[in-house]
């Protein structure tokens, strides 16, 4: 809960920046002060994010209204655009996933952007909210079942690059059925984190950079050196016992390599054993002693697959801590 003084400041910013002024007036210096204030409040207590984000969203709506009016005022229009981006960056730095995904691709050509064209559909499906709930510790288990080519795996890579920046002291594991899948995941995630021309990751997470990478092992680290790297990638049957661990997120993507496996119950039973005795055993706890979270992504061909079993086993036990998309 906000302190009495913090609440007074939040109300004052709302009044001075949103409620009182003419709809066509932007107080940019005061907005910059609000951003600094917001960072400090959230740093002191992440749970106090709500009121800060409400004011931030209200300011963005005002900027959008100014642009909607198409006023003959180039300076005001430019200020409105700049403020929207500044607030998205502020929100992105404070674990707001939607703003992170938008700001991350700020530099990209419209035709090359992944998230913005798909944003409305992802929102409609509840996918962004479910991932946000994972970040906000409202969920421990998330299963995502979508057809091929819908962007679910790419979205998971974007999400994981945010996790690496928001939790630089933690380590995460991506697990899949083949080296080709994990190789692409590693390469794309590393490119997002290191390519300052194409992506704005470095603008969001100032002071963080890759300090170790191992292309052969498909892992890299940001922030301080850790016993395990920020992102590690592994496949079923890789025989890497003791070499990989996950403290924050275990992300399992399509353990089934082909439809023939999905139609064979014996094979599905073996894949469950691989998951339960290999991937799941890599989970530890994070810096706050909270158990590692799991995200499962798949194009599903059988109700007897890993996601199906998880939903059957944990459906009642984790009713308030799991989500199905």
Can you walk me through this structure?
- It is a single chain.
- By secondary structure, the protein is α/β, with parallel strands linked by helices.
- It folds into two domains: about 5-95, no CATH class; about 125-325, P-loop containing nucleotide triphosphate hydrolases (Rossmann fold, 3-Layer(aba) Sandwich).
- The protein contains 13 helices and eight strands.
- It has helices at about 5-20, 30-45, 50-70, 75-95, 95-105, 115-125, 125-135, 150-165, 180-195, 200-205, 260, 265-280, 305-315; strands at about 140-145, 170-175, 210-215, 220, 230-235, 250-255, 295-300, 320-325.
- The chain has an eight-stranded mixed β-sheet with strand order 3-4-5-2-6-7-1-8, with helices on both faces.
- A hairpin with an 8-residue loop joins strand 4 (about 220) and strand 5 (about 230-235).
- Helix 2 runs antiparallel to helix 3.
- The mean pLDDT is about 90.
List the helices and strands and how they pair.
Elements: H1 4-19, H2 28-44, H3 49-69, H4 74-93, H5 97-104, H6 115-125, H7 127-135, E1 141-145, H8 152-166, E2 172-176, H9 179-194, H10 201-204, E3 210-214, E4 219-222, E5 231-235, E6 249-253, H11 259-262, H12 265-279, E7 293-298, H13 306-314, E8 322-324
Parallel strand pairs: 1-7, 1-8, 2-5, 2-6, 6-7
Antiparallel strand pairs: 3-4, 4-5
Helix pairs in contact: 1-2, 1-3, 2-3, 2-4, 3-4, 4-5, 8-9
Structure summarized in a few sentences:
The protein is of the alpha/beta class.
Q: What does the overall shape look like?
A: elongated
The structural domain count equals: 2
Spatial order of the strands forming the largest sheet: 3-4-5-2-6-7-1-8
The CATH C-level name of the largest domain is Alpha Beta
Number of helices: 13
Strand content: 5-15%
CATH superfamily of the largest domain: P-loop containing nucleotide triphosphate hydrolases
Largest sheet: 8 strands, mixed
Q: Classify the oligomer.
A: single chain
In whole angstroms, how far apart are the ends?
31 Å
The proportion of residues forming helix, as a percent range, comes to 40-55%
Number of strands: 8
């Amino acid at each position: 809960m906000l302190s009495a003084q913090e609440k007074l400041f939040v109300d004052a910013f709302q009044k001075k920046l949103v409620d009182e002024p003419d709809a066509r007036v932007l107080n940019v210096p005061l907005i910059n002060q609000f951003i600094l204030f917001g960072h400090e409040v959230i740093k002191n207590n992440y749970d106090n994010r709500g009121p800060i984000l409400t004011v931030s969203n209200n300011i963005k709506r005002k900027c959008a209204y100014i642009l909607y009016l198409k006023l003959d005022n180039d300076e005001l229009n430019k200020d409105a655009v700049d403020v929207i981006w500044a607030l998205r960056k502020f929100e992105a730095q404070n674990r707001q996933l939607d703003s992170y995904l938008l700001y991350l691709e700020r530099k990209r050509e419209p035709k090359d952007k992944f998230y913005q064209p798909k944003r409305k559909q992802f929102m409609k499906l509840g996918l962004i909210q479910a991932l946000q709930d994972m970040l906000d510790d409202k969920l421990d288990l998330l299963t995502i079942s979508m057809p091929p080519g819908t962007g679910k795996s790419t979205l998971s890579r974007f999400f994981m690059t945010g996790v690496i920046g928001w939790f630089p002291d933690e380590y995460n594991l991506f697990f899949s059925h083949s080296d080709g899948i994990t190789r692409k995941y590693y390469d794309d995630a590393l490119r997002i984190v290191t390519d300052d021309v194409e992506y704005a990751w470095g603008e969001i997470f100032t002071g963080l950079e890759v300090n170790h990478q191992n292309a052969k092992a498909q892992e890299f680290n940001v922030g301080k050196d850790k016993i395990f790297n920020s992102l590690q990638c592994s496949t079923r049957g890789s025989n890497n016992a003791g070499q990989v661990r996950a403290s924050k997120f275990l992300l399992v993507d399509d353990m089934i390599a082909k439809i023939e496996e999905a139609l064979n119950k014996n094979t599905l039973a073996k894949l469950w054993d691989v998951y339960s005795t290999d991937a799941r055993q890599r989970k530890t706890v994070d810096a706050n002693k909270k158990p590692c979270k799991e995200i499962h992504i798949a194009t599903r061909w059988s109700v007897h697959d890993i996601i199906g079993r998880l939903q059957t086993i944990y459906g009642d036990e984790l009713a308030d801590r799991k989500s199905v998309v």
